[in-house]
Design goal:
alpha+beta; 25% helix; 3 helices; 188 residues; 9 strands; six-stranded mixed β-sheet; 30% strand
């Protein structure tokens, strides 16, 4: 489901950028900036790269532990997650102005469409009710640490918190007998 959420949002951004700049090739790639060996990912060159930075449990929905009684069965409650998603304008030195232009257009797109639902994004995975994107601000120290983890030099980028993926396996862990009729009276 994580892949479906990120692919949908990146695809919507890609279509908007292609329309805005009347471009035929994809302008957004869902990919890392670096391979495991440290080499640059070629599919990210001269594009906006969209990649997952972190996964967080949504605190507003509790701890996600315990069991719920549902359908006469004992079931683990859904797990609600937020994704930290980075959009990086990966353009070389002579194309720095292009990087800023694409990054500005990315911010403008999510400012105009911060919520993705089945009505405004028909391709949204049926397991996802809605996705909301909120810009996330990092301190210089946190930003430096993040780029150190990513393994590259800073590129023009923006970080979004994508709320809310709910994982619900729907797996019943135990059957609970149904209560039929209470018995009245005293037994002796």
């Amino acid at each position: 489901m994580i892949d479906a959420a990120i692919t949908l949002v990146a695809g919507q951004l890609n279509q908007a950028l292609k329309r805005q700049f009347t471009w035929t090739e994809d302008l957004v790639a869902v990919c890392n900036l670096r391979e495991a060996d440290g080499a640059a990912v070629t599919q990210a060159a001269n594009k906006v790269a969209a990649f997952l930075v972190n996964i967080e449990r949504e605190a507003l929905f509790g701890s996600g532990v315990g069991m719920n009684l549902d359908r006469s069965g004992l079931q683990a409650p859904p797990l609600h997650l937020n994704l930290l998603l980075m959009f990086t304008a990966n353009f070389g030195g002579s194309n720095y102005a292009e990087a800023l232009k694409f990054l500005s257009s990315t911010v403008a797109f999510f400012q105009s469409k911060p919520v993705f639902t089945h009505s405004n994004a028909p391709d949204l995975d049926s397991r996802i009710e809605k996705l909301t994107l909120e810009i996330e601000t990092l301190s210089f120290s946190d930003l430096s640490n993040l780029w150190g983890i990513i393994g590259g030099n800073y590129l023009p980028s923006v970080l979004y918190r994508m709320r809310l993926l709910s994982f619900d396996a729907g797996q019943i862990n135990a059957q609970i007998p149904r209560v039929s009729q209470p018995e009245a009276g005293v037994r002796g």
